[in-house]
Design a protein that fits this description.
By secondary structure, this protein is mainly alpha-helical. The protein has 14 helices and five strands. Helix 8 crosses helix 9. The longest helix has 30 residues. The radius of gyration is 22 Å and the shape is elongated.
Length: about 350
């Protein structure tokens, strides 16, 4: 039985935070260890350049940082193909062919693109590369004939656009060379999404409300101690709310089975009064350090030889290029433009 192919990745614009870890990284580690899957993980630097074209140095630095984060959480280059998008020129060529099958009006209607354009405040100065990046995503997915693409619910329009391109290409050229992917979505809208330490619904670099995998213990402590709790819980003896209290939100996410009784008791104590925020934050710090300390140690070890890290990326990119090259050859053959 052939393996199901999974394509997943990140835009390298900084180091990865706990939101990435909960939302995708832990799941990728589990999936790579299942024999029925073949995993391709890529650093989408070309897509990152669509809104950071004049800050390419940020992307270059982030490539190394994200690769370190990948390795530190347990992604294994012997089990997963980890590569850099820009090092696979076949992806850009596929994008060019697919652009001829998509109208500008259709791209402008993409809900995800519309939302991101508004968030970034482009106004009338939308980079054309940003507008067409759903087509680039389609090239990424189809180049590896991915059956499954793990994404958040907000990315459903992107997957649907890829499916449309696949159907249009296969119909136009009377072929079945491209595979129509399925999205792997969280069970509900909030699953896999970690709020920021400030209580914002989403952890993000731009909001400065994250805890990063590369943070040292002092920085993690500083961020935990600044966490949003219950603003009405002024005195220790005051009853407190656990809903919307980031300390208890994080305890629910990172606590293990053996922590369940302690967390339940703390919740009850906090709600009736008599339990201070400092004590709950210190307990959360212990829980987070249990999770982050091994990751941090592995990251520091890998960082001692960045040359080896980039050799890993080079090897992965070479392997990915062979696969994408085969797909491109099949696409050009279907189109009838293999002239020689």
């Amino acid at each position: 039985m052939s393996k199901q192919i999974i394509l997943t990745g990140d835009r390298p614009t900084g180091k990865l935070h706990l939101g990435h870890y909960i939302g995708s990284l832990r799941n990728r580690v589990l999936l790579q260890n299942e024999d029925k899957y073949q995993m391709f993980i890529f650093l989408a630097d070309q897509q990152a350049l669509t809104d950071h074209a004049k800050e390419s140095e940020i992307i270059k630095e982030s490539i190394g940082n994200v690769a370190l984060d990948y390795l530190s959480v347990g992604l294994d280059p012997s089990k997963s193909t980890i590569f850099i998008q820009s090092q696979i020129p076949e992806l850009a060529e596929l994008t060019m062919y697919y652009l001829n099958l998509v109208s500008v009006a259709r791209l402008e209607r993409n809900p995800t693109v519309k939302t991101e354009i508004a968030q970034k405040g482009f106004g009338e100065s939308i980079p054309s590369g940003f507008l067409v990046y759903p087509v680039s995503q389609a090239a990424d997915i189809t180049a590896f004939k991915a059956n499954l693409v793990p994404v958040g619910n907000d990315q459903k329009p992107m997957i649907e656009q890829t499916r449309e391109i696949v159907r249009s290409f296969n119909h136009t050229y009377k072929t079945d060379v491209l595979v129509e992917p399925e999205g792997l979505y969280p069970e509900n809208e909030t699953a896999g999404r970690l709020p920021g330490i400030d209580g914002n619904a989403k952890m993000s670099k731009s909001l400065g409300n994250g805890i990063y995998l590369s943070d040292d213990m002092d920085m993690v402590k500083k961020r935990v101690m600044s966490m949003y709790t219950d603003p009405k819980h002024i005195r220790v003896e005051d009853p407190g709310q656990i809903e919307g209290n980031m300390v208890f939100t994080y305890l629910d996410v990172f606590g293990r089975d053996e922590d369940a009784n302690t967390i339940a008791e703390m919740k009850e104590h906090y709600q009736r009064g008599g339990l201070g925020d400092v004590k709950t934050k210190r307990y959360l710090l212990e829980i987070l350090e249990r999770e982050l300390a091994p990751i941090r140690e592995r990251r520091l070890e890998y960082a001692k030889d960045m040359g080896e890290v980039f050799r890993m990326l080079e090897k992965g990119s070479q392997a990915a290029r062979q696969v994408a090259g085969q797909t491109l050859s099949e696409v050009k053959s279907a189109m009838g433009i293999n002239y020689f």
